[in-house]
LabP
Amino acid sequence: EFNDFDNAQFQRVPFMVHMPGLKGGVNHTYGGEIDVLPTLLNLLGVKNNDTIQFGSDLLAANRNQTVVFRNGDYVAPDYTKVGSTYYDTKTGKELTKMTKAQKLRVLALSEHVTKELSLSDKVITGDLLRFYTPTGFEATDKTKLSYKVSDAKAQLKADKTKTSVIQKNNGKSTMNLYQTDAPELK
């Protein structure tokens, strides 16, 4: 029977990187979209000490692998929280009677999630990025932005530049061009 735990697990999406010199393989790391930038910067050898970011490099050995959802739910390698229910992430079994060690771990995870969401809220609701002015920073003119679907469609229609890989390949798939040495994908 499909339940809330299953739904939380379905939030997983593969993240694939292909670049020269990178050995293929599969890394079963828990992470979110927030971790993409730090991971790519590390792979490209770009130092990012001057940037503000909440994510962490997905390939770092000591990273916190808790995936935080906006509503306070989370998925971690050991426990998953959905609403007020806790699950063993590996087995999917609901934790009805937790041991003291489990309670302490769940408490630590919950405190981490609360802190991450609180910091995120402060940046968003407090507009704290207005104080972030590194060298070369140019503020966006908000009066020139539009989030209307009709405006976006009109802009896409007017722009004749081919930007997607499929467009650049005349509407044909490029899957046959992809090569990897990852044994899991052979």
In short: Helices lie at 4-9, 36-43, 100-125, 149-158, 165-168. The chain has a mean pLDDT of 84. The longest helix spans residues 100-125.
